[in-house]
Structures are given as C-alpha cells and as structure tokens.
Amino acid sequence: MMRTKLGVAAIAVMVFACGGAAPAKPGPAVITFMERYEWNSDVRSADPDDPPGAYVKTAYLYSLVSAYRKLTDDYFGNVFYMNKYDLDDGETASNAAGVSVTRNLSGKASAICSYSYTSNPQRNVVSSPESTSDRLSFALKYRFNPKEKAGPRYSFKTTYSTGTDFSFGRTLSFKPAADGGLGGDWTYSVSYQFVWGLTDAPERGIYRTQFANQWELDLNYKIDKTQRLSLNYIYLNNLYHGAVTDNNIVRLSYMKSFQ
Known about the structure:
This protein is mainly beta. It has a single domain (2-17, 30-258), classed as Beta Barrel (Lipocalin). Helix content is 6%, strand content 60%. The protein has one helix at 2-17, and strands at residues 30-44, 55-70, 75-86, 91-104, 109-120, 131-143, 153-163, 171-183, 186-197, 210-222, 227-238, 247-258. It has a 12-stranded antiparallel β-barrel. A hairpin with a 2-residue loop joins strand 8 (171-183) and strand 9. The longest helix is centred in the N-terminal third of the chain and has 16 residues, at 2-17. Mean pLDDT is 86; it is low at 11-22.
C-alpha cells in the first residue's frame, strides 16, 4: 500500500514539475479494447516437472481495456487494466493496471510519466507463489519529422524506469524508431532499444551493466476508423548477469476503439 501511494504521489509531483498548462475543455474519452495472442520461444519454466533452469516455448492471451483523454491543450491522460492468461497452463499469469500522463513540450517533444501495478496470483499448475510489484517510469520522446507524409518519420525516446522504492529494478533505455505508410491501410514501425541496468547489488546477483538489446518490427492494418490489426515481432537479446538464452516473441493483436 505504501509503495502504491508513493507511485501516485510521484506522478502528481511529476505533472506539477512539468509546469502549468493552458486551461482547455477536456476532450472525449476514447475507450479501447484489445485482444492479443503472444508466442515466446524461450521463457524460463516454472513447471516442477521440467529440469531446473529449463527454458520452454510459451503462449499467452492478453485482454486489455484502456481509456485515453485529452485533459488540456498540453496534457493527455491514459488508464488501463490488462489480464495475462497462460494458454499452456490454463491459468491467469498476472493482472496489471496503470496510469500515465503525457505533456507536449513542443510540436516535436513530449514528456511521459507512468505508474503500473502488477499482481501475480498463486498458480496451481506451475510452482509460482503470489506476488505483487509496481513501477514508475519517466520518459522523454523527440520526433524529428512528425509531419512527414512521403517517407519515414523518425523518433528517439529515453526512459528511466524503477520500482517505487527506488532500490531495485532501475533501468535506463534508449530507443530510436521509424514509422511510415506502406500504401492503402497498411503502416509499419521499426525500432531498436538499448537497456542498461542501474542497480548494482552483487550480493543478489544484480550488476550495473547492459540488460538487453531489443529489435522490434510492427505491421498494422486499419480495418476501419475504429478497428485495426497488428502483427509484431520482437527479438530480445538478453545480456543481464546469468542470462542463458535470447527470446523471440510474436504477437497478433486486434484493437477496437469507442468514443
């Protein structure tokens, strides 16, 4: 409870620190529902029947609902709830909820503050006890040519993320990206993310070093004004201390929005 209160308070401080925004009538809320199938090539197994330290192929189903709203001329808010279901074991793997506030600093730059809380229930099929965690993230994003229509649009984002007690799970990431149209209702985006671990606790096997390289490709198809499909591939090159293998992730998502 204390960590949750700290997370909410930190968002309030962050929003206040960004400065005041010009008063404006809030816009309508946009509600989005998403269903996502995700396949992973290498996830550490929690099944007691598998050898210790075994990595297995795993599939999940995500169900998400989010609400997005323009708060003022410069501020935008978003809240979400997401359920993660393990298709192999037939159990809920986690429930997560969060809130974020984005402030437009200019026509090209924005600042994002977000808080998320994750609950992992007691699992019956696999050896996984109940646990909870929450995180804060602070990000700056710069779009180099947001009005480009003929060619790719480029951006760069840097994110500081931490557990709310600021003593574990601290990372700093850098993410260059490009997106554009493929013709008709098709669009794409490609990105690379460098993740650096900031926590140095050798007694727990955690070191201040590079955690991962992540390459990502998205293909999106606009069905109509309220519906779209997304096919996503991620190659996760794990480099943290004790990492055994990399992970290939494939996601197929369907999204529908209401206003």
